[in-house]
Amino acid sequence: MGQEAFDKIWKMIGLRYKSHPWHGVDIGQNAPEVVRAFIEVIPSDTVKYEVDKKSGYLMIDRPQKFSNIVPALYGFVPQTICREEVAEFCMEKTGRDNIIGDDDPLDICVLTEREITHGNIIVSAVPIGGFRMIDGGEADDKIIAVLKNDEVYSNWEDISDLPPSILNRLQHYFLTYKQLPGKEEPKCEIPHIYGKEEAFEVIRRSQNDYQKIYGNLEEVMSMTLVQAMNFGKQQQDILKGL
Fold this sequence. Notes:
This protein has one domain: Inorganic pyrophosphatase (Inorganic Pyrophosphatase), CATH 3.90.80.10. The chain is built from five helices and ten strands. The protein has helices at residues 3-16, 84-94, 164-176, 196-214, 217-241; strands at residues 35-41, 47-51, 58-63, 73-76, 100-101, 107-111, 121-135, 138-139, 142-147, 188-195. The longest helix has 25 residues, at 217-241.
């Protein structure tokens, strides 16, 4: 079977079945300068939604603690994961040892002046910086981005352009959203806030980490499809011989 036939089959499958938001949605041709982001949670949500890694459907992770609400659209960058290369970059920048990746897709906050009424959507986002967050010894970077072509926020080209009130609100959310009552020591810390060039590097590294694990995913699926088609043909030939 030629490549053209494969492409037609994949197109038909895409029309019939929903793509997994982590593996089946492309990061975008202009990454890391512009990326696609899958949005799980919006500011009006009173619970934290998270994509189930197996099925690709949104599930309830936990109620938002206390009065914490996410101050922006919040989700992840498809076809990324935080593992060795992201962790190495974190250790390089912080001078710390024994940091590992959190083994999740790269998180992203997308700022917009428009009201988005629900999650489970894909948006185009322009990264302008990020938070180097460490959560219990794991690198858990948060990319800060603005919605592409946003009427107001697209004028902010780097995280240094953000008003302090917005930056502080974002920091406060991530420093407290996992904090448990009665615990004095925060579980999460943000040792660095970085600009867009460093955000681009984090995205590239998360892409590399993803490729090391899932880079042959489409090839494996193609082989499985060929095997299934060959099996079907064998069954037909057997039936014809009866």
